[in-house]
Structure formats: structure tokens, C-alpha cells
Design a protein that fits this description.
single chain; 287 residues; alpha+beta; 5-stranded mixed beta sheet; 6 helices; 24% helix; globular; binds benzoic acid; binds fe (iii) ion
């Protein structure tokens, strides 16, 4: 096509795609081009704004390293991660909802025994967490593998802080034959997502804060069931309605119960105030 103009450019680009129309890539490329062009038309994008956008994306790329994935962070704050997770994890009523994975999981976390304290001296209020893994009808899911990770009582992840050496506040344990699990750690606090880069500038430009409400991450694998990646949130957290990455789901908000010093759930005497959480996970069977 000659005489390209702002009216026919979309069709001109689409007509160059030579993949069968029933190919998934055809659907994705077509949708991408159509929506990108619609966006530019709708906001009447100027050349200076286009340049700014290119500069921004270039900087996002420059911030990426083996330790930091600024593009995923961008997807998170734009709500794209949350949308993709929600539309790919529709489950029968009663199943535990999935939410964002986040960048702070470590594949080779320490293996834990039931009841272990994996805080490794991290600051924070002692926390005793119990729970059970079941199927939708309440049937026992035995020996699930439970991967747990969280920020400490100052809102910091071990992998984020240069002054923290070694792994802490993370581990992998097995639920028992009845699906029960129990561990000890410290209560995590709310934290701000990394905002010293272009994603931080984007949040500031939108007048948004970088806070995530306090949460505990779980990844649960059991034979015959879909993998569950989720969080559990504290019902008293002030940022539940303004999570910078849109990870909160009402069904994942729980009571993190405060206790005065005394006998803890593991039978030991806890000389300081402590917290408990009891949360059950319902897995979706692989059909
Ligand atoms: C997290 O919960 O660890 C997280 C999720 C998305 C972006 C940054 C952090
Ligand atoms: Fe987190």
C-alpha cells in the first residue's frame, strides 16, 4: 500500500502479517497492533510524548539485571500481572485464590522441619503459623510441598538488603499426611516496592505510593492439584486498598491474632508479645 496516512496505517501493518489466522501469534500480533494504534489515536500522542515513552522503556531495560526485573515490576504496577493471573486462574468456588508471585522468591530455599523457626534472627514479633491443605470437598491433601517467603518486621527481604548475609524468612516444608503444617517466624511488615528506578518515577508521576500491605507468600505443590501461588494478608493493614501491585483479594485477608507474653502454640514460653495465624488452603484438582 502506498500513500500511508493516519487512517490506513493500521490496516497496512496488519496486512503484512503472513501467519495463518488461526495461529495464536496471529491473534497476539493483531491485537497488539490494533490496540497500540488505537491508544495513539485516542490520546493523540505527540512526537515528544512518543520519544518520552521510548526513553522510559529504554531505562526500564537498563535497570534489568539478574537481580532485578524492572519490566515485571512495570507489569505489576500497571495491573497487567494481576489481570493475567486472574484470567488464567479461574477456579471453582471455595478454592484459594491466586495472586502475584513477586520478584523475591528464591528457588533453593532451606528445607524445614515442621515447627521450625526460619526467621534466622530477623527483627520482628514472633509469629506462630498453622494451617491445613485440602481439596475442594475438604478431602485431605497429604504431604504438599509448601514454599514460604516474606519480608521481616522492618519490611525488608533478605535478598534486597546488602547488609543481610544469607537467607532468612524463607523455607520449604512438607505438610503432614493429614495436610497440616506449622512453622514459626516473625511478623512481616508492609514495604515499598523498589522505587529508585523508572517504575518508581512512573508511580510518582501518577501520584501513587509504592506500598504493599504486609503479607506472607506461599507456593503450594501437591500431586494431582494445580500449583497455588498466593499471599495471606493482615486484616488490619492500612495499605490493603492501595496495594501498588494490585495483589490483594478479599478471600486472602486473615486475622493475625496478637497475644500477650505467655505459652505459645508450640508449648514453649514466649517472654514477649507474639502473633498467631491459622489459614487453610484449598487446592484445585487437575481435571
Ligand atoms: C512481592 O510481594 O514480593 C512483590 C510483588 C510484586 C512486586 C514487588 C514485590
Ligand atoms: Fe512480598
Amino acid at each position: 500500500m502506498l500513500n500511508i496516512d493516519d487512517k490506513n496505517i493500521t490496516q497496512a501493518v496488519l496486512s503484512r502479517i503472513s501467519i495463518p489466522t488461526d495461529d495464536r501469534m496471529h491473534t497476539i500480533f493483531t491485537g497488539l497492533i490494533e490496540h497500540l494504534h488505537s491508544f495513539a489515536r485516542e490520546v493523540q500522542l505527540t512526537e515528544q510524548e512518543w520519544e518520552k515513552g521510548i526513553e522510559f522503556l529504554t531505562l526500564v531495560g537498563k535497570y534489568c539485571s539478574p537481580e532485578r526485573q524492572e519490566f515485571i515490576l512495570l507489569s505489576d504496577v500497571l495491573g497487567l500481572s494481576s489481570l493475567v493471573i486472574a484470567q488464567n486462574n479461574r477456579k471453582p468456588a471455595g478454592c484459594t485464590e491466586s495472586t502475584v508471585f513477586g520478584p523475591f522468591h528464591v528457588a533453593e530455599a532451606p528445607l524445614l522441619e515442621p515447627g521450625d523457626d526460619f526467621s534466622q534472627g530477623a527483627p520482628g514479633t514472633p509469629w506462630f503459623v498453622t494451617g491445613k491443605v485440602t481439596g475442594i470437598g475438604g478431602e485431605t491433601v497429604a504431604n504438599a510441598t509448601i514454599d514460604i517467603w516474606h519480608a521481616d518486621g522492618e519490611g525488608q527481604y533478605d535478598v534486597q538488603a546488602a547488609d543481610i548475609h544469607g537467607l532468612r524468612c524463607r523455607g520449604v516444608m512438607k505438610a503432614d499426611s493429614q495436610g497440616n503444617f506449622f512453622f514459626r517466624t516473625v511478623v512481616p511488615e508492609a514495604y515499598e516496592i523498589p522505587s529508585d528506578g523508572p517504575v518508581g518515577s512512573l508511580l510518582a508521576a501518577q501520584g501513587r505510593a509504592a506500598w504493599r500491605p504486609a503479607h506472607l507468600h506461599f507456593m503450594i505443590n501437591a500431586e494431582g492439584y494445580q500449583r497455588l501461588i498466593t499471599h495471606v494478608f493482615n486484616k488490619e493493614d492500612e495499605y490493603l486498598n492501595s496495594d501498588s501491585v494490585f495483589g490483594v483479594r478479599a478471600s486472602l485477608i486473615a486475622d493475625w491474632v496478637k497475644h500477650a507474653p505467655g505459652i505459645a502454640p508450640d508449648g514453649t514460653f514466649c517472654p514477649q508479645s507474639f502473633c498467631t495465624l491459622d489459614f487453610n488452603f484449598v487446592l484445585n484438582p487437575i481435571s
